């Protein structure tokens, strides 16, 4: 063999190395889209040493309940400008805020019992929504309607209010207890005790027709529902064995009348929130409370938070998730931007303080590729 032929043979990489390289490239292309379903960036919204919790979000505005002044107030934050602002800091407690477009609602103790108040972000004015006797709590707003849990009749009922007309109306005044109303468009949903203790069920109400309808009447408990459009989600313990609860996440399409499982992992999943194509929820499978997500269009579940402390109360709007987080010792509000195209016309928020996230599998593959390339480069130099 000629000298030139021997040199060419020396410079050739062993076939096994080329095979591994091709396999790793293939795995990278296959695995990263699945596992990095994907958190583009995670970011803190509050950094106070006191307690900030129960956030809600619409567009660029995040609102939450804040105890920095010794009682509970309502604060807001503009993701686009990085500006924090006060919404309501009366000396009494203001709790459980929710937001739709330029209107923020919350429950307020300034009159000695819980009432429902609102605030217009555009003209910076506060207004009363319901100040009836006894407690009105847990408001939810979407579009032209606010709904809440109301005890004026001696038990917990569901009432509503139309912003454009200033009209209040009963949604459900059944003699048993109704809890935790939510609205996300045409419908309001809640969980209901009318079928007996230990058998909470999910009911709904159509604002257009003024009619109530059952959503889930399965055995066991269904609670903490959320709705957006015609999709309802909730936590469900129908798979409980014995006395040990096992909460899962279920969903229901109002238009088709179809129920479906979202997550039935053996550990708890709780407090779902839904917007368009995505559901987010609290998940206990890792020994702490993390935030997970599920995309309807792909049938894919993915992990959003990986910090070893507890993350709770997730709320989704388009591709942004917010929650309250115990990683700093107390509770602070955090957020994450997802690469899910959940609102195609929605621009992503880029935060000044970003914590980039890459899934463990993606990182392993990239490190392996880098190592192999380095080994091959060294071998080539030696030859």
Number of helices: 3
Look at the structure and name the CATH superfamily.
Answer: TolB, C-terminal domain
The number of domains? 1
Describe the sheet with the most strands: 4 strands, antiparallel
Helix content: 10-25%
Contiguous uncertain segments of 5+ residues: 6-11, 25-36, 346-383
Number of strands: 28
Mean pLDDT: 86
- CATH level-3 fold name: Neuraminidase
Q: How big is the Rg?
A: 25 Å
* CATH class assignment: Mainly Beta
Overall SS class: mainly beta
Which term fits the overall shape? globular
Distance between the termini: 18 Å
Q: What is the spatial order of strands in the main beta sheet?
A: 1-28-27-26
CATH architecture: 6 Propeller
The fraction of residues in strands falls at: over 45%
Protein described:
The chain has 383 residues and is mainly β. It has a single domain, classed as TolB, C-terminal domain (Neuraminidase, 6 Propeller), CATH 2.120.10.30. The protein is built from 3 helices and 28 strands. It has helices spanning 3-11, 15-35, 360-382, and strands at residues 39-44, 52-58, 61-66, 73-78, 83-88, 94-100, 103-108, 115-120, 125-130, 136-142, 145-150, 157-162, 167-172, 178-183, 187-192, 201-206, 211-216, 222-228, 231-236, 248-253, 258-263, 269-275, 278-283, 290-295, 300-303, 311-317, 320-325, 332-338. A 4-stranded antiparallel β-sheet has the order 1-28-27-26, with no helix packed on it. Strands 2-3-4-5 form a 4-stranded antiparallel β-sheet, with no helix packed on it. A 4-stranded antiparallel β-sheet has the order 6-7-8-9, with no helix packed on it. Helix 2 (15-35) runs antiparallel to helix 3 (360-382). The longest helix has 23 residues, at 360-382. The protein is globular. Mean pLDDT is 86; it is low at 6-11, 25-36 and 346-383.
């Amino acid at each position: 063999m000629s000298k030139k032929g021997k040199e060419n043979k020396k410079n050739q990489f062993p076939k096994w190395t080329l095979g591994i390289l091709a396999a790793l490239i293939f795995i990278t292309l296959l695995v990263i889209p699945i596992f990095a379903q994907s958190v583009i960036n995670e970011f803190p919204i509050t950094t106070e040493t006191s307690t900030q919790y129960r956030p809600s979000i619409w567009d660029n505005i995040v609102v939450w309940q804040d105890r920095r002044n010794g009682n509970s107030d309502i604060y807001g934050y503009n993701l686009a400008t990085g500006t924090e602002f006060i919404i309501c800091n009366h000396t009494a407690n203001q709790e459980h805020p929710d937001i739709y477009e330029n209107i923020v609602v919350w429950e307020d103790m300034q009159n000695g019992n819980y009432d429902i108040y609102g605030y217009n972000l555009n003209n910076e004015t506060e207004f009363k929504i319901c100040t009836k006797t006894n407690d009105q709590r847990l408001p939810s707003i979407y579009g032209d309607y606010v709904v809440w849990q109301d005890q004026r009749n001696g038990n917990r009922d569901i009432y509503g209010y139309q912003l454009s007309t200033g009209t209040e109306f009963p949604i459900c005044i059944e003699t048993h207890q109704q809890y935790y109303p939510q609205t996300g468009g045409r419908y309001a949903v809640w969980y209901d005790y009318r079928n007996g203790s230990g058998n909470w069920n999910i009911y709904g109400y159509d604002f257009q027709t003024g009619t109530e309808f059952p959503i889930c009447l399965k055995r066991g408990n269904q609670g903490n529902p959320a709705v957006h459009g015609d999709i309802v989600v909730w936590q469900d313990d129908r798979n409980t064995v014995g006395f040990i609860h096992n909460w899962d996440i279920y969903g229901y399409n109002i238009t088709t009348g179809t129920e479906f499982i979202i997550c039935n992992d053996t550990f708890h999943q709780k407090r779902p929130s839904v917007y368009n194509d995505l559901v987010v929820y609290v998940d206990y499978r890792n020994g702490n409370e993390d935030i997970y997500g599920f995309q309807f269009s792909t049938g894919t579940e993915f992990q959003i938070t990986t910090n070893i402390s507890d993350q709770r109360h997730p709320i989704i709007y388009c591709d942004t998730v917010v929650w309250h987080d115990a990683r700093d010792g107390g509770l602070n509000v955090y957020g994450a931007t997802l690469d899910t195209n959940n609102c195609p016309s929605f621009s992503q928020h880029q935060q000044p303080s970003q914590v980039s996230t890459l899934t463990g599998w993606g990182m392993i593959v990239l490190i392996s590729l880098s190592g192999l390339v380095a080994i091959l480069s060294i071998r080539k130099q030696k030859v």
